[in-house]
Write a structure and sequence with these properties.
The complex is a heterodimer of chains A (469) and B (218). Chain A is built from 10 helices and 12 strands. Chain A is of the alpha+beta class and 469 residues long. In chain A, strands 2-1-5-4-3 form a 5-stranded antiparallel beta sheet. A 5-stranded mixed beta sheet of chain A has the order 7-9-10-12-11. In chain A, helix 4 packs antiparallel against helix 5 and helix 5 packs parallel to helix 10. The longest helix of chain A has 52 residues. Chain B is α/β, with parallel strands linked by helices. In chain B, the strands form 3 sheets. In chain B, strands 2-1-3-4-5 form a 5-stranded parallel beta sheet, sandwiched between helices. Chain B is globular, with a radius of gyration of 18 Å. The relative contact order of chain B is 0.11. Classes of the chains: A alpha+beta (469), B alpha/beta (218). The interface between A and B is medium-sized, with 24 and 25 residues.
Chain lengths: 469, 218
Amino acid sequence: MRLRSIRWQIQLWHGILLAIVVLGLLILGSYHERISIQLRIDRELMGLTPTVLLHHFPPPSSVAEVAGTEPHRAWPVSNPNQSAPVPQVPSSDNPLPQGDYYHVVWDAQGNIIARSPNLPEGLEHPRPVQIGWVYRYANGGRELLHLHPSGYVGIVGISTDDIDERLISFHLWSWGAGFSLVLGAWLVGAWLVKRSLWPLVEISQTARRIAGGDLDERISLERAYEELRELSATLNQTFDRLGRAVRQQVEFTADASHELRTPLAIILAEVQSGLRKNRSPDEYRNRLETCHVAAQHMRNLVDALMQLARIDAGRERLEISEVDLKELLGGCGQMLQPLARSKQISIESRLSPVIARVDAPKFQQVVLNLLTNAIQHSGEGTLVRMNLRLDQSHVIVGIIDEGPGIPLEERGRIFDRFHQGDESHYSGGVGLGLAISRAIVELHRGTIEVDCPREGGACFTIRIPADLE
Amino acid sequence: MRLLLIEDNPLMLNSLARELKEEGYVVDIAHDGEEGLYRAENWSYDGIILDLMLPGLHGYEIIQRLRRRYSTPILVITSRDGIEDRVKGLDLGADDYLIKPFDLNELFARLRSILRRSSGREINVSRIGNVMIDHQARKVAVAGEEIVLTRREFILLQALVNRIGRVVSTIFLSDYLAEGDEPVSANALGVHVHSLRRKLGKDFIRTARGEGYIIDAS
């Protein structure tokens, strides 16, 4: 038995409590029964006195000096049976009790003048000091002792074994009932506890099925008890979130493998084609160049995947230093001039002098990525603008293009991994640039947002605290 | 045999198109789903090689739309390797499925297999009279003696053999033999037919006057 389980704890304590209550009741009942048996026996002893004791005593006339004691005054010589000293013994409707009664009578000189054969051993003259009737436990029995004013002494008694015998049947009955009661209540309790804990079992089974891979399984709230409904709802929400995270991870892995397969297929096809037969040097060169492009694409992809994996694992550390952002952003613009010029795009920079604490290479990566995207998505002869300013304690970088913009329904997802608009598929990107940019900005405790003004184009805004620890 | 290749990655597209041409197919290319569907619906192809992940129109959509009217064999190539993806593609009506990266020889073998099935042949060799055509090795023998055919001649022969017993129109053949979008002229087609007759026997290809050409089932 697992004593740490709620079920067994409840069972144990309610069982113990019940047993104590029943035991107390039994002890009380037993005491009461003993008293009532004693009273009955006392009555029986008193009822016996007329037949076994009183007719041995001298008549009242010879003991007139002790008139006033109750039994004596009621003494009818002629008919002792009818007027017993204790009026509550009507012998007609209360026949002489069966049992191992004994009696003995001494005269005033201490000689036994009457006795029953079953007198207990060692019973001696009691030498009572007081005239009258006395009940006592003595000689292993319950006795009624009577000192007659004449000096006669009589005892009528019964062995306590007889009392015990009567108690035994009571005990058998009452203890049996008590035990059955405890057992029955315990069993009913066990059933109740099991029934009320069943939802917990259901919850745990559901959780186990989810852990086993069935991510769509949920705890049913329809039949849940009020107390467990909230817990179940909370658990279901947690399962939802975990399920989404797992699914995202699975999707990401599938996407990553998908993205790697195409360049790999190209390399394989080109190499196989080159090996199939002898070809001219130009044909070989052509195939090698294709392989080179595909392999470079794979390298970029693997680099990006590794960086994301490091960020996910929390192993990507920022190397913060004071950086002149105006210089850094200006450098990014310079670097992308050739790409911009090839599409007759001009980059317009409006940069305020800002010194901030950032990780320079990673911040540069973000800016280069956003600028490259802006140039690639813009039409020929358009303008790409880059702003830098300080707003209270935040650095704000804006990169704005005049391209087609991003549809509203896409805006929430463009920072997702491998989310690509239709065009970007051709642009040579690996589909992870924005995801990495967001991760890096978030490492700087900043935010990155995209907005599309009504007149067209896309506006990316980065906000990071200027005095990062 | 004339094939349509629909693939969005330009490197993959060029590479596959080149290899398929080297295998003796006439290949048309499409860079995205829209273009691919347009070509497939407006030209006659013996087979279509289709990448599933396409910008514009997804491969599943193309299969579904094509299957409403055409039974052109479709070989799907994709980098999605999930069972559901495969099952869905096949259920929609694709004839076979190949996962990137694949072996070129496997691609060719699967292609031959779906083309063979669609033309009702069970093996890669056709025998018509004393002419034997090996579609896999692209060899032709007349009375056991091997005959050398040019690329165009072999493509023309295949076009007629695959439609054996049926008249094939000159308009169809002009389109079919075209390497680019420009059809082969009626004159040039006549030259190819003449040359085939010279090599395989005068009566092997019969002219259905005003309609086209036919190889009679013997």
